[in-house]
Amino acid sequence: MKDISLIAFDADDTLWECQTYFETVEREYCEILSSYSSADEISKALFAVETANMPLWGYGSKAFILSLLENAIEISDGKLKAEEVKRILALGKELLQLPGKPMKGVVETLKVLRELDKYHLVVFTKGELLDQENKFHRSGLAPYFEDIVVVSDKTEKSYHQLCERFSIGVGQLLMVGNSFRSDIEPVLKLGGWAAHIPFHTTWQHEVIEEYEHPHLLKLEFFTQLKDVLL
Length: 230
Prior knowledge:
By secondary structure, the protein is an alpha/beta fold. 48% of the residues lie in helices and 12% in strands. It has a six-stranded parallel β-sheet with strand order 3-2-1-4-5-6, with helices on both faces. The termini are close together.
C-alpha cells in the first residue's frame, strides 16, 4: 500500500446515509398504491421497472422517481389518480433534498487524512450530477476533497479514466465504499486497492457474492481507515 497516492470515496452510504431514505420512501409509496396491490408485489414490480430503465436513465433519485411513476401506472392498470401522482412526486422531492449529513467518524477521519498531505482525496460516485453535487455541498465535506467526480456507472473503464485524470497507475488507487459490486470488485480486478465498509442495508441491485483478496481491506467502521493509512 506504500504506493497509494489517490484515495477515492464513494458518497451514498459511505460518506452520508442514503439507502434508508429510499427504503422509507418505498414503504410510503406502497401505502399510496395499497388499493391496487400488495406491498410485496408493488416492490417486486418496482425493482423490475428500475432494472429495465437503468440503461436509459441510470442511477439516482430522478431515475427512481420516474420508475415510481411508471410502475404506479402499470400497477393501477392506468387508473392512477392525479392526487396519487402528486403524492408520489412529493416523495421523490424529499429524496432530492436529503441532508447529506456525514456519518459517524467521517469528518474526523477525513481531517486526519487531509492534514497528512500525503494523498489526493476525491469523491467518486455514480448517479445524477446535480443531485450528487447538491448533497456534496450540503454535507459540508467539500473542504476535505480536491474534487467530486460523478459518473453514470462505476465500471472498469470509469476507474481507468479516474486514474488518468490524476495521472496515476491503478495500483496507486485506493477506493473506499460500501458496495462490493460498484466500489470494490472493479478496482480489485484492475489491480488497485479497495477498502470495504459495509452499510447496514444494501440496495438489492448492488448485492453480489463477496470474497477475500490481497488488495482488499475489510473495515467495520470509517475511522479504521486512518488507522491502516497512518
